[in-house]
Amino acid sequence: MGRRPYSDRWTTEECKSITVKFLNNYNYFDGGIRQGGMNWTSKGEKIGNIGFIVSTVEGDEYIRFQYTQTNHSSGEKTQLDYKAQLDSTPCYFGGRRWWFICPLVINGRACNRRAGILYLKNGKYFGCRHCYNLTYTSQKESHIFDWLFRKAGIDPKEGVQMLKGRR
Length: 167
Ligand SMILES: [Zn+2]
Fold this sequence. Notes:
Helix content: 10-25%
Strand order of the largest sheet: 1-3-4-5-6-7-10
Mean pLDDT: 79
Oligomer: single chain
Shape: globular
Order of helices and strands: EEHEEEEEEEEEHH
Number of domains: 1
Radius of gyration: 18 Å
Largest sheet: 7 strands, mixed
Structural class: alpha+beta
Low-confidence stretches: 1-8, 159-167
Number of helices: 3
Number of strands: 11
Bound molecules: zinc ion
């Protein structure tokens, strides 16, 4: 019986998102620890890539994302490495259905929603559809704040952090 190589990498047309279905199709939920990655393309051009580790070891189920995020305006690169928990529910026909637990914390509140798809789009972290709608809105708002802060002589970056109450 052939074994899959330890590390696999696929190219997908999907729009910077990761789905439980994809991981399921490639047998990531096999009760062990598996490593893989994805490249995203749009019209034949590479638009991004990530690496990830999936653990479905009982009592320690997670997906760990590893990638570099580039800030669109400053070009600054950030190395990211963080986990999202995985959850599973029993299937009617046997086996288990897996879910991502959305890892985002917005305005000090952990989302913790179950999701079949996590989106990265042009953001920094993966999040569920619900959070992405929120972040999208707050990003637009933060530009309004940028303008207000500049007007008041405050560095917009610091200003936004103050607003969100981050340390
Ligand atoms: Zn969320």
